[in-house]
Amino acid sequence: MPSALYAVLVTGPSMAPTLRHGDAVLVRRGGRAVRPGDVVVGVFRSRPGLLVVKRALRATDGGWWVQGDNGLVTDDSRAYGVLDVQGRVVVRYWPRPRWRFRYPRV
């Protein structure tokens, strides 16, 4: 299956300081496998109607245990369990691209 890019708008503070409310990112569906430390987009099995952006920590139960970069916000796997990943964030393109910016690995 070929990989596809699509845009996602970040809402809320859970990924600050890496991503902030209002940032727009490109997400790659397919391509290389998700690795711990990647910033991913997906849905929690317990909240299938909510698309979220989080950092992948470890593979578990056929999905991923994820956490936001803002430790004060706990709307991640600590509250909702396993995430089914739909894609991997490859670049933030709005506002002002950070050229050569790589998301830090955990």
Automatic annotation (TrEMBL):
Name used for this protein in its record: S26 family signal peptidase
Keywords: Hydrolase, Membrane
Membrane spanning residue stretches: none
Domain Peptidase S24/S26A/S26B/S26C: 2-90
Taxonomic source organism: Micromonospora echinofusca
UniProt keyword Cell inner membrane, yes or no: no
Main location: membrane
SUPFAM superfamilies: LexA/Signal peptidase
Higher taxonomy: Bacteria, Bacillati, Actinomycetota, Actinomycetes, Micromonosporales
Subcellular location: Membrane
